[in-house]
Structures are given as structure tokens and as C-alpha cells.
Amino acid sequence: MQFHILTLFPEMVENGLQTSILGRAIQKGLIGIHAVNIRDYTQDKHNKVDDYPYGGGAGMLMQAQPVYDAWKAVAKPAEGKKPVRVLFMSPQGKTFSQEMAKELAQEEELIFLCGHYEGIDERVIEEIVTDPVSIGDYVLTGGELPAMVMIDAISRMVPGVLKNEDSGVTESFQENLLEYPQYTRPEVWEGKKVPDILLSGDHARIDKWRLEKSKERTKARRPDLYEKYDLSGRALEYLLK
Ligand code: ADE
Fold it and tell me: Is the CB of 136 under 6 A from ligand 1?
């Protein structure tokens, strides 16, 4: 999976995605991070990429031309291939979710467009963006952190990126349930003991206990998710019995 990130701060994205699991995935060639500096495409003699908004108002806007030319430099679809999707990081987009991460992980290439300042000239957004995406109902200073959040979530859905193929599946949000509590050594810490059942070696009972804990937790912490589980997951649970 190749990620192209159009940004004014390429080093932020490059540095932020080189560590740990994603760093290893890059080394193995499972994912590629290609940060493109939008400023490299300005035609302004002072290297400017922003200007005042028509009609007045606070702050500066990124101009259409450098964004468009940066996009053109990476978005050349190979013969017979469909155009690469352009995800625009914006609080006005559709809210990112695990389901979207899974769906986007099917693509071979993705382009992330990161705005800064007060936004980007609407005309270039209309021209190139296929999917406006938000990471939640709060406003950040730029699209770089949202792009990094999304790249992380999408990458772990790419086959081979996680060591244990299973762990992308048995986790929070699978079947709309949050993950059950987990414990490691020592057996007793600060007087708190690991639940006996986890030491029993009885895997059928452990699975049942984990499902119960997941349900309890989801009901208490995320009643909205539990409602969805109740609709879809119960049928599955019945089939597994
Ligand atoms: N840019 C600024 N805030 C954002 C958000 N919440 N999600 C995506 N992009 C953003």
C-alpha cells in the first residue's frame, strides 16, 4: 500500500510514521510513505502558498495552484487503472471509523491532502478530492495528525503488517464490541490477582468469559455500540454456540 501525503510539513509525517510497527512495515515494503511538499510546487517567486480570503475574514487560505500541481505530480493513474482516491482531511468530512480503515486498506494507493492555515481554496477541493474525512468533532491546526491517525489505522489492516494476523480481528470494534480486559505476569500485582479462569487452561470457558466481559464493558462504556451489537452480533453469537 502506497500512501502519498500532500502537505506543507512533510518532515512531520515522515518522522511520525517511522517507528515501531509502521517502521517495520516500511522496511518490509508492505507500506510506503511518500510525503510531498506542496511548497515545492508554488509558482510564486517568494515561495508563497497562501493568500487572503476573498470577501474578508480571519486568516489565510492555501492557494489552488500549488495544491493542484502537487496532486498532478503523484496522481498519474497507470494505463487502465482507476484514479487514486484523494482523502481530504477536514472536520467537515465523514467521520473516520474502523470500517473505513478496512475498506481503504483494499486500495493499492491513496493520496492524503492536508490543509493548514484557515483552509484551502474550494475550487481545488472540488477538482481533486474524492473523500473528505474527519477524525472527530474537534478542530486541529492542520490535516497532518489526522492523516497520520488514518495511515496508522489503515496500515494495520494491510496483510502482514501485524505480527499476529489474528490481532487485527480480535480487538475493539470487531462485531461492535470493545475488547475484553487482558493481564500478563505477575499473577498478583499490588494485591490484585489475575482472574482465576484465565489460569484454568479451559479455552472454551475463557472464550465465553471474554465475550461476557466484552459485552459488559461495551454496555457500560459505549451503549451506542452495544445497541448495534445487539442487532448484528447476537445472531452471530447464536451461530457460534
Ligand atoms: N483538520 C482539522 N481538524 C480536523 C479533524 N477533526 N479531522 C480531520 N481533519 C482536520
Answer: yes
**Residue 17 shares a structural domain with residue 129:** yes
12-70, pLDDT tens digit by residue?
A: 999 999 999 999 999 999 999 999 999 999 999 999 999 999 999 999 999 999 999 99
Tell whether 107 is covered by a domain.
yes
Tell me the torsion sign for CA atoms 84, 85, 90, 92: positive
Any bridge partners for residue 88, and if so which? 113, 132
In CATH, what number is assigned to the domain containing residue 235? 1.10.1270.20
Asked whether the beta carbons of 84 and 111 are under 8 A apart, the reply is yes
Whether residues 61 and 135 share a domain: the answer is: yes
Beta bridge partners of 189: 192
Q: Is the CB of 143 under 6 A from ligand 1?
A: yes
Q: Which three cell numbers stand for residue 231?
A: 442487532
Alpha carbon of 193 to ligand 1 centroid (Å): 42
Q: Which atom of ligand 1 is nearest to the CA of 141?
A: 2
Grid cell, residue 140, equals 486541529
As a whole number of Å, the end-to-end CA separation of the chain is 37
